């Protein structure tokens, strides 16, 4: 990923503090307990209060940062509306608590709300058996498979309550926030119906996880949609975003620094997945491979159990794309899927 991006801000604000990045739009920076160690949230001035885009991870530490921010970053002004870009727990994790605290409605797309509810309502046994069946079929061996299965529903553990039923938004909607029109653009692949927000008057895009400056967002396949092709969905929606928005758009991502250079960044992301597909196909040409076998081809680092779950999902995603486009075929042996180029 080689594009040279322009970063108008060299460092983030302190956790819980805010920094104005465009008229009426402010940056909040919250820690995360992962290798990806932070998330950016966005406050938009909205009358006598705020519209908040994304909410932070569902942990007590995040709530502590929020409590400090109520009087500092928010200046004691209420959150009037909570807009969630997608279902991941660092984005929706505090939506229920903040909605209750401020009596604020939650807005999100129908696809994200449906998956949020599905994941939250699954039992530990259902999730564990889903891992055993799905990842086992893709070659994950016994000890690693049992470690993932025994985690149960980790999604619900970091999001103890669902937010109230949201106001649903969709691609093409124009939302009025603080007297400005923000258009909803939909990203796919990383999430089923990821909402990005664009303000035309100053070419400003809140991109969530759909366009990040340093990494490509995880593209995963879930057990309930085993033949899903998130790689094609991701690339196609990126190209649609590139065609719709100008190159000098200021991108406000969920992780990393704000940047300009939307078009070359999208080009690099698409090229990265083309390279991953080529590498996967070449490896399958040498010998039949499972998704587990493919991990060292796609990931050049050691994976812990948390990273292994996402890596398996992404390996399956690239193999599903190759299968859907006729570049590999599947062979099932003793209940395990192998892929042959």
Automatic annotation (TrEMBL):
Specify the superkingdom: Bacteria
InterPro entries in the cross-refs: B_lactamase-like_C, Metallo-B-lactamas, RibonucZ/Hydroxyglut_hydro, Sec-metab_biosynth-thioest, WH-like_DNA-bd_sf
What are the Metallo-beta-lactamase domain coordinates in residue numbering? 38-255
User: Pfam families given for it?
Assistant: B_lactamase-like_C, Lactamase_B
- Segments spanning the bilayer are none
Q: What name appears for this protein in its UniProt entry?
A: MBL fold metallo-hydrolase
Per the UniProt record, the lineage of the source organism begins with:
Bacteria, Pseudomonadati, Pseudomonadota, Gammaproteobacteria, Oceanospirillales
């Amino acid at each position: 990923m080689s594009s040279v991006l322009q970063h108008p801000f060299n460092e983030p604000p302190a956790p819980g503090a805010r920094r104005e990045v465009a008229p009426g739009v402010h940056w909040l920076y919250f820690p995360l307990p992962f290798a990806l160690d932070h998330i950016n949230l966005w406050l938009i001035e909205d009358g006598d209060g705020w519209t908040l885009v994304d909410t932070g991870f569902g942990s007590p530490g995040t709530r502590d940062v929020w409590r400090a921010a109520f009087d500092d970053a928010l200046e004691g002004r209420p959150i009037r509306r909570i807009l969630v870009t997608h279902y991941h727990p660092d984005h929706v994790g505090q939506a229920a608590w903040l909605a209750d605290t401020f009596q604020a409605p939650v807005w999100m797309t129908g696809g994200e709300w449906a998956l949020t509810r599905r994941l939250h309502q699954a039992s530990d046994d259902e999730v564990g058996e889903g891992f055993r069946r799905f990842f086992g079929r893709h070659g994950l061996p016994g000890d690693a498979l049992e470690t993932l299965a025994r985690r149960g529903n980790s999604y619900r553990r970091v999001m103890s309550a669902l937010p109230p039923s949201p106001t649903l938004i969709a691609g093409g909607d124009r939302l009025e926030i603080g007297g400005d029109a923000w258009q909803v653009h939909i990203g796919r692949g990383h999430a089923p119906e990821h909402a990005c927000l664009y303000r035309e008057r100053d070419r400003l895009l809140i991109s969530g996880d759909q366009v990040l400056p340093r990494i490509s967002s995880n593209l995963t396949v879930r057990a309930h949609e085993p033949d899903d092709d998130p790689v094609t969905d991701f690339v196609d929606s990126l190209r649609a975003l590139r065609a719709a928005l100008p190159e000098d758009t200021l991108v406000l991502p969920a992780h990393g620094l704000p940047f300009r250079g939307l078009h070359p960044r999208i080009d690099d992301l698409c090229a990265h997945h083309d390279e991953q597909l080529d590498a996967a196909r070449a490896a399958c040409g040498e010998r039949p491979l499972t998704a587990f076998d493919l991990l060292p081809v796609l990931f050049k680092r050691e994976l812990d159990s948390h990273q292994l779950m996402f890596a398996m999902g992404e390996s399956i995603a690239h193999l599903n794309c190759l299968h859907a486009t006729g570049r590999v075929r599947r062979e099932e042996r003793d209940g395990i899927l192998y892929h042959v180029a």
